[in-house]
Amino acid sequence: MILTESRTQAPNLARTLSLLALLLAPFLIYLETARSVVEIWDSSETFAHGYVILPITLWLVWRKRAALAQVRPQPFWPAMVLLLACGFGWLLAQLGDVQVVRQYTFAAMIPLSVVAVLGLNVARTIAFPLFYILLAVPFGDVFIDPLIDHTADFTIAALQWTGIPVLREGNNFTIPSGSWSVVEACSGLRYLIASITLGALYAHLSYRSWRRQALFMVVAVLVPIVANWLRAYMIVMIGHLSGMELAVGVDHLIYGWLFFGLVMFLMFWIGSFWREDEDRSAPMASGTDAQAGQLAQSDPADPALTRRIMIASAVAILCMAIWPFYESWLQRANHNPQAAQLSLPASGAWQPAQAFSDWRPAFSAPQLQWGEAYRHEAGQTSDQAALLVLYYRNQQQDSRLITSTNRITASENFTWLVTGSAGRSETVGDRTLGVREYRLRNQNQRLLVWHWYWIDQRFITNDYLGKLLQAKEKLLLQGDDSANVFAYAPFDEDPESARQALRSLLADKLGPLEAGLNGNLRR
Hints:
Blueprint: H1 2-29, H2 31-43, H3 50-63, H4 65-68, H5 78-96, H6 99-118, H7 120-125, H8 127-132, H9 144-162, E1 167-169, E2 172-175, E3 178-181, H10 189-206, H11 210-241, H12 250-271, H13 289-294, H14 303-334, E4 350-352, E5 368-376, E6 384-392, E7 417-428, E8 431-441, E9 446-455, E10 458-460, H15 463-475, E11 482-491, H16 496-518
Antiparallel strand pairs: 1-2, 2-3, 4-5, 5-6, 6-11, 7-8, 8-9, 9-10, 9-11
Helix pairs in contact: 1-2, 1-6, 1-14, 2-6, 5-6, 5-14, 5-15, 6-14, 9-11, 10-11, 10-12, 11-12
């Protein structure tokens, strides 16, 4: 009797330990990536919900314990290919410094490892908890600017419908009682993220039909967006009607969360009318004989099954572990210890002159910052322009060419305000140059700013292409040298005068600038 129990317990213990090692492996192998996720949870209220995702996931798996007990685990080897592909995606994201992709590929390794080692039947049984893990990844910054724009559009339109005159400049506007700005905190992103996280859990627990679940998720996305528009409008109206005494300080935020809480309560209350009670008549929906055989109770004493699971766990861990080692070697091979240099010859129609503006972008710190103001030899006031180059080499967390924290103006103060932005294609000499154009103003000056990237010896404006080019350069051991390039000029009322000055400046300086940038590359 004792001998039989010991024989049963040994394979069971070995299987448990191998599965525990499998689940802990992504967190240990990709410790820095996991830490970056937690750091965002800790520093941003928008993503603080990430702390509860893992406990909720474990609880959701625990709810399925009866069904899991009837499913025989069986390694699914094709999933190892997906696990390898996920690791390679992490490598590309690491080389291109795309943090959100790096974090998603890390999170995706957890459900993929479960599929690879325990099989499709186990994965189907706990499919929602496995997908729910992905909501822990702090994603959404890319939506901030569109959300801000739409919130400003609705607020200003609603004020005008109310009969209040509005003077708008970009996302800043003035009404008779005072001035307002629709900034990052007004985007409603934190309400949207919270609604999606809660909505997904509610839909899973309340509905069995995928159509009802999908419909509720559509509502969970649309309702917080529209609610945020109404919230912004009502805050401005409260401030306007109270003579700018109410809804302009901390009560602004308190009112926002109270309003959001009420909207979420109403959304879930209405959704409860279509609730479908969980069908507990059978652990699984399948009824065929073949599937019933697969759902048979797993024998913990089956040494062959335990051996397959242990081998699959080891292979899965290996599939995850190879990429950080390879990435570490690539980083060392791409490191360039030399300091970057840049200078332009003082020739041509545009000559160095005294600086005419104190504007600087709020970008991450470069290895080299170079700037020069110019004046056209004709000496006209309108013929002032400047170049600014932020050169990056051996990029680190706090020194990155492309990052969502880069801002054309500092968000913590309102010295410079963005009054408009657009993508443009400009003809400079005999070449076409794509730029992002920004119109800025402060109390004393208006500026027109053109911005573009220099990556892989070419000028581009697309962030995604830029990340891919950076990853390609590192894979080919060409380093990560790149630069943010700005050209800017003052204007009074019509920005076309500044555009003409910038076209003329770049026709004179773009060739020497490109040669100077290329001269820093390793040969």
